[in-house]
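Section 5.1 Outputs to date
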Amino acid sequence: MSIERLSVPKLLGLAVRAEIDSELTYSRLAERVKNPLLQEKFQMLAFEESKHAAILKNLFRSLYPGRKISLPARADQKLLPSGKVKPSTGLVEVLSQAMKAEKAAQKFYLDLARRLGPVPKKIVLYLSKVEQSHYLMLQSEYQMALQFEDYAEKDIEKVVT
C-alpha cells in the first residue's frame, strides 16, 4: 500500500492504530525486562505513544468535524511495521525491530506532512521528530544490549560487575 493512494482520514486512522499498538508493545516490554532503567525507558516510550494517538485523534477531529475516525484492526505493516515480539525474542532483536518501526513512523509522518496544510503539517512534523528521538534512544539501548548480553535481566550495577 502506498501513502499517496490513501486518503488523509484513512492515513490518520492507520497512524492512530500504529501508535496504540506501539504503546501496547512498549508496555509489555517494560513488564518483561528486569533492568529498572530499561523498564523506565520502555514505560516512557509507551506513554509517548499514547500521547501521539491522542494528538492524532485531536488532529482528525479538527480536520474532519463531526466525522468519526476509522481505526483498522491492524496497522499496515508496509507503511508502519510493528515487528513480531515473541516471549523467546531476545532484547537485541526486539530493539532492532523497534528501531525499524520508529524509523518507518518518522518517514510516514514526513510523507503525511506533505499532504497537509500549515497547522496540521506542523503537528505531524513534530511527531516525526519525536519518532526520530525514539529511534536514537533505542539505538543507544541496542548498543548496550550488544555490549552486555544480560542487560535486560539485571540491575545496572550487576550488569557491569
